[in-house]
Amino acid sequence: MRVLVVEDEQLLADAVATGLRREAMAVDVVYDGAAALERVGVNDYDVVVLDRDLPLVHGDDVCRKIIELGMATRVLMLTASGDVSDRVEGLELGADDYLPKPFAFSELTARVRALGRRTTVALPPVLERAGIKLDPNRREVFREGREVQLAPKEFAVLEVLMRSEGTVVSAEQLLEKAWDENTDPFTNVVRVTVMTLRRKLGEPPVIVTVPGSGYRI
């Protein structure tokens, strides 16, 4: 899952990003609304965690722009205000969910994952395919009842492949969904991660390489 965190409190933004990365998400971070508009114009995000009170460009305007662009991106709006009318106003702007500060990180993570499931055709919380069961919330993977221990990026790649439901996912798409914008686009990290993932999942192989196209399960 690819997430953009937009928050002008840099310590909070960086802490949220670090926590989400530990949950096997690819996370980019910006600290103002203008930078947020630049990022959403370039990258495809599943979820934007958006502070409402931003410098340069207000969070409301960022939310409006995302809606105007007709993007599948879901918006989780954050605010220091706990006033109900403020929350209603944010949702009426087009935000998909609203979370007042201070918040529990576990709740933020659960809301981000719930929104991420809504960016495509609705899928169950626990994914199952080819004898593999993947639970994003618990960060657990089983193959034929055997638990498989995966590193965060391996988990992220497997989740993207399983969510594609048998369609081919290119290396570029995997790079976009499982790594952040600081990753070298010419790196072989996708190929290496898929190789390691295949080994950990065991025999017979379930990840198929489609020459010239990408990978599928």
Automatic annotation (TrEMBL):
Residues 124-217 bind DNA. Coiled coil: none annotated. The modification 4-aspartylphosphate is found at D51. Gene3D superfamilies: 3.40.50.2300, 6.10.250.690, Winged helix-like DNA-binding domain superfamily/Winged helix DNA-binding domain. InterPro entries: CheY-like_superfamily, OmpR/PhoB-type_DNA-bd, Sig_transdc_resp-reg_receiver, WalR-like, WH-like_DNA-bd_sf. Residues 2-116 form the Response regulatory domain. Residues 124-217 form the OmpR/PhoB-type domain. It comes from the Bacteria. Keywords: DNA-binding, Phosphoprotein. It holds the Pfam family Response_reg. This is Response regulator transcription factor. It comes from Streptomyces polychromogenes.
